Amino acid sequence: MSKKNERDEILVPIDFTEQSLIALGQSYNLAKEYNAELVLLYVIDDGNMLPTFMSGKLQTEMKKNIQKKLDNLATDIEKKTGVKVDTMIAKGKPYEKIIEVAEMLGAIMIIMGHNSRKKLSIRFIGSNALRVVREANCPVITIKGKHHREGCKNIVLPLDLTKETKDKVRHAISVAKLGIYQAAIRVVSVLQSSDEFIVNKLTRQLEQVKNYIQQQGIECTAEIIKTVKGEDSPAQCIIDYANKVEGDLLIIMTQQEANFTRMFIGSTAQEVVNNSEIPVLSIIPQMRKYKPLVR
Q: Which of 46, 51, 138, 236 could lock 290 by a disulfide, CB 3.0 to 4.6 Å apart?
């Protein structure tokens, strides 16, 4: 599929399950704001044995039925929202095809539903959504919850003392300034240390970040949550805080932890993606080749 115009594209993987349709519904306003086209992608999983045992005629018929459903959905979206919609069908491993198509399109974002697998090890990525989060070169919004408010009033921004803080803040500001949002930013840090030096450094950083965000004309609050190792995990503290402030979007970085393969991401990031009922925008620091969301 070649680009027809210079309009940006947002990729929405779809399999017609409830969660993928919920994610699709969350994509309309963003597409309008970025003047972007939605691309609905259905991946026929070649790991599924059913299509393998189908005759060529039955496989062709199945593909025609999928295409018809995609076309009907695209037509309905365009009529209701005015957003331009294109469709694609691919065959292969879902997460690989999603990443491949996103790169081919130069997609500015992937928006996808996510059903976490509770039995997986907290660090191992086993679901398509988590693999996409880890390996995609563009921001990914994962949507696990069933019910979401209209718009976005509160963006929750977890921060620590890592060097990626400026990147996180920059992206949060760009999203908060979107015409459809005009959201407040709720900065939060989870502290598991009583070291006075660390406490003071984190306190200063949060105050600087809050002041900077407020200077951009955005409402901002900053809070440090103190917890004890062995009690609630940092990820759970972040999720609890996001629920408390009625957050509509969580922005996290998915930096790879040292000495781990590409099959792993930071445990806190994965736990947030897996367990948050609030949509999560995952951004890879120092991303390689993607169109930034900053306008």
A: 138
